[in-house]
Design brief:
Radius of gyration: 28 Å
Number of helices: 25
Number of strands: 23
Largest sheet: 6 strands, mixed
Oligomer: single chain
Structural class: alpha/beta
Number of domains: 4
Strand content: 15-25%
Length: 720
């Protein structure tokens, strides 16, 4: 039996199976098998095959091709299949069959003709669209009776037919890029407030950032798989910051809604300020093939928590159960004793009080920013959705401490009787699709910034490595190449290829300008320097909203921002201080510089980032310190400046210098888990001390009330 393993076809015919009925569609499986196995002979290398995609909204009913191929050697190939025998064919059936193929051509043409590079004339396009009608159960010839439709009765006929329509000259990369940008929907990704900068300013920072924003980035193969592959069950999408997880998840939500307009779909997320972006993305992707907006009653976008009179997954669930939601202040107090985060506590509390009994409310649930949620929220979502149709995207390296691959079995297993989700086992039910997709490319950060962030985050050039990825496979999953070593005790060299960090910043800007470090005698001098730099940035055609300032000094952040605010006010530059915002709904405001903490900056980005107060990070062996540096650095799309008082001889300057000396490669001796274990333990020692004190208090109370440890376990349903 044919088994399409998509990982093996990234260099040949790339195949994207978008519908679960593929498993039962023997005609389609046979055809896809033939095309994949004979891609070179058919001149289909470097092509992409889609099954049941794209779906177009026609006047009376939706139309979707069975097989849709984008080929640089043929243009577009649309293949529709029929399982009818010769005796069952009627003129009416043939007429309708042909009509659907011709409708598809008209709808595709209508999309392409809008793109200047693909337009040949007012109503024509420069790329050919070929239609093929496949009747493998028939022995008749000229079944279609349409001069524009090629008819075949066996897969083997395709070789000659494809040769007939083969182009004399291969389509250019630019044309293919534009074709994919229409088909995959990347052209619809909104760019807010597109800047207009003359070619005379082509050396300015604003021009460089404008070029980056205008660059049409088509979905790579893994992003297509993640966005378009729909499995009847759980699915995980993982990748580092900037790999496009939110964009991919938004497109998946749109496609689910297009294909299942009557079903209830939920998209939930952690960062409140993401709401507008998510809604814009979903709308754009939906309207790519539909002539109306989504039905927001059936496709809901909800913050995970919500609040007083503000919809959210937790809030809405409480209301549906007739229970009063716990507010943040109360949750914060109660969660301390439970050793949980406030949101983890309220979700766990709600599930516990209802003994895990909830009515399902959704057909699909999509979870963005999955790394920021505790298990209890996943348990809640799983109880609210039918048939485990839960799709979650998470950042594998958002927290440097959490470097082990997520275990989906442990994530979903709980004491309410829910078993863990074994993705590998479930894959056997749909072998032609993937339920665990890794996005290797980072589109947000230039290579120089990302490598610097990982170097500082892990402590690669520290005297002792603070944390490490599990093995070389994990590095490769993150888009790196292990040039040498990669095993415990080995001298190791790891490089990030430019194709996995495709930002044009790396090509247009000097490396020492992308990441820089500056030291000052005092806070006032640092603030005045930053203000002067920001003023220069604005004269260099950056916009205020392109700039973010992140203070690493939690203790003196207000003093830093007060001094910087006064310096910027003298230059008539406005600011948006996120620290003064209670809701966090608007992270970036037009014509204002953004002031933020590391924690509020998560999930957001800017063209240029100033990281101030770096002298506050003194413990070079601290995981928390490393995590803050990593998160701050990876907010930037273009440039980073790290500043602090008397940091010229500090570990940040020292380690970044070593990164540059090694030409932005990671060069180190691979440690064992035992070698770095004591560092982790030391980082957690304060927490352990607090836990021990609380444990002693609990034991004292138990003793006073005559309760044994075993009795306590029974009361709280605790197992060893």
């Amino acid at each position: 039996m044919f088994l399409l393993e998509w990982r093996n076809f990234e260099m040949g015919l790339k195949t994207v199976i978008t519908n679960n009925d593929f498993e039962s569609n023997e005609l389609a499986k046979d055809l896809v098998s033939y095309l994949s196995q004979n891609a070179d002979k058919l001149n289909l290398q470097d092509s992409t095959l889609y099954y049941k995609y794209p779906k177009y909204d026609n006047d009376t009913f939706p139309v979707v091709p069975d097989i849709f191929i984008v080929s640089p050697h043929h243009g577009i190939i649309v293949i529709n299949l029929s399982d009818k025998f010769s005796r069952d064919l009627s003129d009416k059936f043939i007429e309708n069959f042909n009509s659907e193929l011709n409708d598809l051509v008209a709808l595709i043409t209508a999309q392409f003709v809008k793109i200047k590079s693909l337009r040949k004339s007012r109503n024509g396009i420069s790329i050919p669209i070929n239609t093929i009608a496949s009747f493998p159960n028939c022995n008749m010839t000229d079944i279609s009776k349409d001069e524009y439709i090629i008819t075949i009765t066996s897969n083997s006929e395709l070789k000659d037919r494809l040769e007939d329509i083969c182009l004399s000259e291969e389509l250019s990369k630019d044309i293919m890029r534009d074709v994919y940008s229409v088909i995959d929907g990347s052209r619809t990704i909104p760019v807010d407030n597109m800047r207009e900068i003359s070619d005379e300013d082509n050396s300015s920072a604003g021009y460089i950032l404008s070029t980056l924003e205008k660059q049409i980035a088509t979905f790579d193969y893994r992003q297509k798989l993640a966005a378009l592959t729909i499995v009847d069950g759980p699915q995980r999408i993982r990748g580092m910051a900037g790999s496009g997880k939110t964009v991919v998840l938004a497109m998946k939500a749109a496609q689910l809604h297009i294909n299942n307009p009557e079903e209830k779909i939920l998209y939930t997320f952690y960062t409140k300020s993401l709401y507008d972006q998510i809604k814009r993305l979903i709308t754009r992707f939906y309207r790519m093939t539909q002539d109306h907006d989504p039905n927001w009653d059936n496709l809901q976008i909800l913050h995970a928590w919500g609040g007083l009179n503000k919809p959210g997954v937790y809030y809405n669930t409480c209301v549906s159960l007739g229970e009063k939601p716990v507010n943040f202040a109360k949750a914060q107090n109660l969660s301390k004793d439970a050793q949980m985060t406030p949101f983890e506590f309220v979700c766990n509390d709600l599930i516990t009080r209802n003994n895990g009994n909830f009515n399902t409310q959704y057909d699909y649930i999509l979870i963005d920013e999955g790394q920021d949620f505790a298990s209890s929220f996943y348990w809640l979502c799983r109880r609210l959705v039918k048939n485990d149709r839960i799709i979650w995207a998470y950042d594998e390296l958002q927290n440097i401490l959490d470097v082990e691959p997520q275990d989906s079995k442990r994530l979903f297993e709980n004491h309410f009787g829910d078993e863990g989700i074994d993705l590998a086992e479930l894959l056997k039910k749909h072998p032609h699709q993937s339920n665990d997709i890794i996005l290797k490319k980072s589109y947000r950060n230039p290579k120089e910034i990302l490598v610097s962030a990982h170097s500082l985050g892990f402590g690669i050039y520290n005297s002792k490595i603070v944390q490490m990825l599990e093995n070389r496979k994990h590095w490769e999953d993150m888009g790196y190449v292990v040039e040498e070593g990669g095993n415990v005790g080995e001298n190791t060299i790891i490089e990030r290829p430019l194709e996995n960090s495709p930002s044009i910043i790396s090509k247009m800007v000097e490396k020492n300008q992308i990441v820089s470090v500056h030291s000052f005698q005092d806070m006032q001098s640092e603030a005045e320097y930053i203000a002067e730099q920001i003023n220069d940035d604005l004269e260099n055609k950056l916009r205020p909203e392109d700039i973010m300032v992140i203070c690493l000094d939690d203790r003196y952040s207000r003093s830093y921002y007060d001094k910087l605010s006064f310096s910027l006010a003298d230059k008539m530059i406005s600011i948006n201080n996120i620290m003064n915002s209670a809701t966090g709904d608007k992270f970036s405001i037009q014509n204002q510089i953004t002031f933020s903490t590391v924690y509020r900056a998560k999930g957001n980005e800017a063209g240029k980032v100033y990281i101030i107060g770096a002298d506050s990070l003194r413990n070079r062996d601290s995981i928390k310190v490393r995590n803050k540096l990593f998160t701050a650095l990876t907010r930037s799309k273009g440039w980073v400046q790290v500043t602090g008082c008397e940091i010229e001889d500090g570990f940040i300057s020292e380690e970044l210098a070593k990164v540059r000396q090694n030409n932005f490669k990671l060069v180190f001796k691979y440690p064992s888990q035992e070698e770095i274990k004591f560092i982790v333990q030391r980082e957690l020692s304060d927490t352990n001390e607090q836990l021990n004190k609380k444990r002693e208090t609990l034991y004292k109370l138990m003793e006073e009330n005559g309760i044994t440890v075993e009795e306590a376990k029974g009361i709280f349903e605790i197992t060893d």
